[in-house]
Amino acid sequence: MKRAIVLILALLVSGCIDTTLPDLTLELGEGRTDGPVCGPDKLQNFPPEQLRITLIDVGQGDGIWIQTPYYENQQLESRNIIIDAGPSGNVPGTSPGGAVMVDYLLTNGLPPGERIDALVISHAHEDHYGGVPALAAMFEIGRYIDPGFAANSSGFLAARGAAQADVSKVGGQSQVPAIPELVPRPFVQTDLFGQYVESDLLWSAAVPPSGNTTDPSGTDVNNTSVAFAIRWGGKQVLLLADLEDEVEQELINANLAGEIDLTSAVMKVAHHGSSSSTSPAFLSHVYPNPGSEEWAVISSGRRDFSGVTLPTEETLANLTRVLGEHHVLSTENRDDIKSPGTEHGDDTIIVTIDADGTVQACYAQ
Ligand SMILES: [Zn+2]
């Protein structure tokens, strides 16, 4: 009798579960990058006076969609900026990031043929440029920017060519190299994010800082990355692409010299959470007084780099020490327990900043 009552109660309860509610198990979970799950409102509405930054889960790589705020007419006022296009998926062990991005954009408000106001490819690595042909085939590209360093990569040149062909079709602008075509030097304001969002170019190098152009290492190419600081609602977001320690040190120097202010509410962690970026010193400049509104977001997948997967435990520990639990989100969240080939597309991260400075970050699932 007792068992029958328990069974009936269980059936009643399961029948009442509202599947649109956030997954509280994950929200309060013990996983290293578990965090809040976006409610249905966040997913369905892009309200006025909000800056929205979406790290689309492209697997190992970066694919970031920025929607700038509008007051009355989204179509006229809000800009769609894409920073990096994810990998193509043609390299063994990688995800079809470009296709994942196209799918996400189509499902979340960009109809086929819609204008992407600007596409920035941060640097000449496949996990950032591989998806360009997929994006160019589905959408119009109004403006194209990269650092100007091609790293002897024919794949990168082909991706740039596909973007530039799209740009010239609509009479748009190609600004390569970003310095001096977008702005004359680092640490000055750009017009890239529209009339309401202030932005500084933090970095872009047409030649690696090491000077090595003939046989550039991964680090050399990473350190050419186009990076930005953008501001809305009195809050700043750092978009650091794959910059490594040497350039983070340049940014610390510029911060100390008063050329920039690194203090931020949100950081797109550099280089997928690798240990060659995000030093404790850099973090102390970005988050001098961390509270409950500071976040770090990471774009990564479960790709094995000689026994290392990103983000590293070291980077996560450094970030969590500063920001606390549940404020470090990663598109690689729990990918270790997923089967290969299913790690992309399910841990997209949405960051919103409202005009009053309210900052929220959550997983779109
Ligand atoms: Zn990368």
Please explain how this structure is put together.
The strands form three sheets. The protein has an eight-stranded mixed sheet with strand order 8-7-5-3-2-1-16-17. A seven-stranded mixed sheet has the order 9-10-11-12-13-14-15. The chain has a two-stranded parallel sheet with strand order 4-6. The protein has one domain (22-364): Metallo-beta-lactamase, Chain A (4-Layer Sandwich). It has helices spanning 2-16, 24-27, 40-44, 74-77, 97-107, 126-129, 132-138, 154-169, 178-181, 218-222, 245-256, 280-286, 313-323, and strands at 50-55, 64-67, 80-83, 115-116, 118-120, 140-141, 143-145, 173-175, 189-190, 198-203, 227-232, 235-239, 266-268, 295-298, 328-330, 348-354, 359-364. Residues 1-25 have low confidence and may be disordered. Helices cover 29% and strands 19% of the residues. Bound molecules: zinc ion. Residues 61, 125, 127-128, 242, 272 line the site of zinc ion.
CATH class: Alpha Beta
Largest sheet data: 8 strands, mixed
- Classified in CATH, the superfamily is Ribonuclease Z/Hydroxyacylglutathione hydrolase-like
SSE string? HHHEEHEHEEHHEEHEHEEHEEHEHEHEEE
- According to CATH, the fold-level topology is Metallo-beta-lactamase, Chain A
Strand order of the largest sheet: 8-7-5-3-2-1-16-17
Class computed from helices, strands and strand pairing: alpha/beta
What would you call the shape? globular
Number of helices: 13
The CATH architecture is 4-Layer Sandwich
Q: What radius of gyration results from the CA coordinates?
A: 20 Å
Determine the strand fraction and express it as a percent band.
15-25%
